[in-house]
Amino acid sequence: MAFEAVIGLEVHAQLSTRSKIFCACSAAFGASPNENTCPVCTGMPGVLPVLNRRAVEYTIRTAIATSSTVQRRSVFARKNYFYPDLPKAYQISQYELPIALGGHIDIETGNGPKRIGITRIHMEEDAGKLVHEGEFAGAQASLADLNRCSVPLMEIVSEPDMRTPEEGGAYLRRLHDILVYLGVCDGNMEEGSFRCDANVSVRPAGQESFGTKAELKNMNSFRNVEKALEYEIRRQIERIEDGGKVVQETRLWDANAGVTVAMRRKEEAHDYRYFPDPDLLPLIVDESWVEELRKTIPELPAEKIARLERQYGIPRYDAGILAADRALADFFEASAAIYGGNPKTTANECVHWKDAVFSGALSPETIAHAVEDRERGTISATASKKLVELVLSTGKPFRTLRDEQGLTQVSDASALDVIVEKILAASPKEVESYRGGKVGLLSFFVGQVMRESRGKANPKVVQEVLKRKLG
């Protein structure tokens, strides 16, 4: 029997606000344990949460960028559960009335473009974390770090529209790029700024109803998500084929073993006993504010890819690599504006030196001059690479170094005639063999000319002169 997978993804993105969602504590990553805490985010009695306006703004901008509908009225709820890193024993989230509904993200698949629906976008606070280290009374000790409590999160829930791990990976990468482009999330998966849970089930091909799903957690990279989905799909199919049943549960991805492991039976929503938070008024969003924020949305990755391909004539693959990072795409366009003779080569150079681009060590002028001098035959490809490395080590301008190092190529055919004549006169046997049909000797003559010119001769022009001289 043929099976197909049904995949839905839930992304938790940490909003790049300076303070937390309901208090003024810093939301920065990496502080000493429990340094960024106060009575509000640690759930002390008698305190009141105050909503962070910037967190709302970032969520609305995300909704606009994903074609979601911003709700005029949304409500914060208490999601009740006990865990040692949750001092209030509840998490403030949105449930029945989220801030945005609907929307979609378009991805590229092996079968062409595909639209993945978005169910909802809502805001919530993060919980703390447990640090397992040391021992107490002969057992492993677990310490609570509450710095992360009340850090602002945005949860983006997709429709179950994906059918393969590759589609899941493409969706996550595109969503990640959008959030980073908007500046609402730094996208750092290692620090937990962009986290994903996956719901996956399988069903016989052609069946309309869904199978029993498992929720996958603990995936901290795009590749891990794809691997976890691939394994879980295979596990569920094998279980059904062996006559067993898939149970609804939460499973952890073990990246070292390459398997998913049962963690707990899946809780239903009513287990959390949601109810509206009595300390927070309903959130009312004015339509004029939404329209004002709509004007701040930059050109997004899909739009940028299409424009780069159209405007510069570069392959879609190259445009996709450039557009994956807004800073890299901007750097490319700045370089191409200085010298636009060969955008494909310019794109290749920008990608090759992207680490230096991101660090600010290279200017668009350096790449533009490197490409232009190579295209015009002023320098060789080897010299170009050496000069860019010298720019990085000395900070001097590209063309200043070119002249100081004497790396300018000789491309004047008349100037090369003398050298070519000398080489041919010193190699009569090779000349006779070449004229007798051993045309492979051309590379021998080119090498001799390059040695005589100390590498300054333009190899392309040298070949032209040699062919003319050799008949």
Write a structural description.
- This protein has three domains: 3-292, no CATH class; 301-405, no CATH class; 413-470, Arc Repressor Mutant, subunit A (Orthogonal Bundle).
- The chain is built from 16 helices and 17 strands.
- The protein is elongated.
- The relative contact order is 0.10.
- It has 471 residues and is an alpha+beta fold.
- The longest helix has 20 residues, at 222-241.
Which whole number gives the mean pLDDT? 92
Q: Rg, please?
A: 30 Å
Distance between the termini: 69 Å
- Overall 3D form: elongated
Number of domain units:
3
Number of strands: 17
Unreliably modeled segments: none
Q: Approximately what portion of the residues adopt beta-strand conformation? A: 15-25%
